[in-house]
Every structure is written in structure tokens, then in C-alpha cells.
Amino acid sequence: MEVKRCGWCVGDALYEEYHDREWGVPVRDDPTMFEFLILETFQAGLSWITILRKRENFRKAFDDFDYRKIAAYDQSKLDELMQDPGIIRNRLKINAIVANARAFIKVQEEYGSFCDYIWSYVDHKPVKNAISYYKDAPATTALSERISKDLKKKGFKFVGPTVVYAHMQATGMVNDHETDCFRYHQV
Fold this sequence. Notes:
Elements lengths: L12 H9 L8 H14 L4 H14 L5 H5 L3 H8 L8 H21 L2 H6 L7 E2 L13 H12 L7 H10 L3 E2 L12
Parallel strand pairs: 1-2
Helix pairs in contact: 2-3, 2-6, 2-9, 8-9
């Protein structure tokens, strides 16, 4: 019997593995939450599969997504990243990652953890939507707009409502699996 998955991932082994194991699973630890923030920032304007295919390159280039190390990056490290053919070499996005690492640490200091802060927007429980066809899922919501505005006030970059909503989907803050997908009731 064939497993029913969300339509967006079907036909690509890497996409299917990501969908089956990670997408929509609630993330409750700050390091993983920051990793997804980096990946979603780089994904802005690009396809998610492009980012997934470069994920290990990003991991290597950005010190295993260690936000404390990234917050301390200097100009020579930024110049080195701009020469790395394994990642998306967009200076604005690379600079945003450093700004976001610094803002991430400030949020941790203020709220105890980034996860406590971000999950408070959904009462610490995933919002379970009823999407029957993945193309019907919203790109933004009033909530992603509110979070986006607050993140920007806190110094984050490249965190528009679309990026924020994709981040919410990836980290399980919202369950946008199609209702007949085998993962819908599991996450």
C-alpha cells in the first residue's frame, strides 16, 4: 500500500524524507529553531528544495548553526562566506543571519528561551489547520504578520510574514499537512 503524503513533496526522495521526518514536527529546542530560521531566511525568494539540497553546506559554513558563534562573526568571516559556492551567496541574507543570531540571543535573555517566546504566540500548542490540498495553505496569516512585526522590532532581518509562516509550518507551530496525509494526525 502506498503512503499518502502532502502533494508538495511527492516524487523527490529528499523532499519526502524531510516531509516524513521533520516538516511540521514541533520544535522545542533553540538550536533547531535557529537552524530553521537560517534556512527559511535563505529560502526567501527560492524553492525549499534548493535549500534542502544545500543544507549540509549551510551547516558546515555556519558552524553547525551555532548562533553564539555566528553572532561573533567578523567581516573576514562574512567575506569568506561570500566565496563559498556551497551556499546561497547573498550578502544581505548572510548579514541578516549574523543580525538574527544576535537578536536571537537577546530574545533568549529576555524570555529564557527563543522557543518560549515564539511558541507563546500559539499558546505553546500547534495550530491544527484542515488543509485538503497543499496549494490552499496560506502563505501568510494575521498571526505571521504579527510575529514578523515583533521580530523586526527585536532586530531580526528577512523575517517577513511569508518567511515567518513557512518557519511556523516547518517547526510545527502550525500543522498544514494535508488532512489525508499520513503525518497529519501524527504531528
